[in-house]
Amino acid sequence: MSNSTIEKTSCLIIGSGPAGYTAAIYTSRANLIPTLYQGIQPGGQLTITTEVENYPGYPNGVQGPEMMVDFEKQATRMGADIRFGLATKVDFSSRPFKVWIDEEKEIHADTVIIATGASAKWLGLESEQRLNGFGVSACAVCDGFFFKGKEVAIVGAGDTAAEEAHYLSKLCTTVHMFIRKGEMKASKVMQDRVKNTSNIKIYWNTNTDEILGEQKVEAVRIVNNKTGEKQEIPISGFFVAIGHEPNSSIFNGFLDMDEAGYIKTIPGTTKTNIEGVFACGDVQDKNYRQAVTAAGSGCMAALDAERYLAAIGH
């Protein structure tokens, strides 16, 4: 690789959701002049969320994409260098850390803040993508409120699905829960909670055939994978809770991760196993996964990076 494409920065931020942009705001104010690459989905998961009502400071709620534009404008005003581009490869074996953007541009960074987020796993139906944001959601805590007093369906068999079904049961008249197999993966306590909630109706050995509706979700067609019998259920909301996948694969071999691929950080910090590399937001948080907690950890990562640079004399 020729030297002409190598660029140096004291702080490189990878990712542009609430965590990445908050890290950019804080590192800019600390005069670290950060470079931020937005990744494959500028604005992250919030750009596929319509209304956000649970982020402090927006009394009337805000559209997810609009909120991310606000974050970006604030980071830019503070002096962050925000760019399109996807980190495709890293080398954290020595300092400065090397990160390749779009497989060609090479960045040398004294510190790296990883805010690459996570992506919801989907069923892979055309109707699911088409109606995403129009009744289809991957986050009951974010969107359940909009279906107050209505019938909804949820797909999933793990703790998250059970937790979200229970959450929805307090808001919705009926929660239809579709489980692919004859048993659930959720912990015993969560299974009991779901089974003992009168307005959660569990369908075993059930696959989603299609989500029905033109402009918004109107019904769902399910199929019993033992008998082949099909059934249509009128619903207003369809929730997918089959898990999230952290966007962490390019850091394999350098950073410690758990079995699901979430980057491990030292509790109470955003520090990874490599000094000078920090991780924040949903790529290291599988518990909360909210915009406000991601933003908080982005602030922590910026402060951790600033202290690290001060300690090494930058």
Number of domains: 2
At the first level of CATH, what is the class of the largest domain? Alpha Beta
> Would you identify the CATH architecture of the largest domain?
3-Layer(bba) Sandwich
> Low-confidence spans: pLDDT under 50, at least 5 residues?
none
Helix content: 10-25%
Chain-averaged pLDDT: 94
CATH fold-level topology of the largest domain:
FAD/NAD(P)-binding domain
Strand content: 25-35%
Characterize the overall form.
elongated
Our count of helices gives 7
Total beta strands = 19
Largest sheet: 7 strands, mixed
| N/C terminus separation | 27 Å
Structural class by secondary-structure content = alpha/beta
Name the CATH superfamily assignment of the largest domain: FAD/NAD(P)-binding domain
N-to-C SSE string, H for helix and E for strand = EHEEEHEEEEEHEHEHEHEEEEEEEH
Task: Evaluate the radius of gyration.
Answer: 21 Å
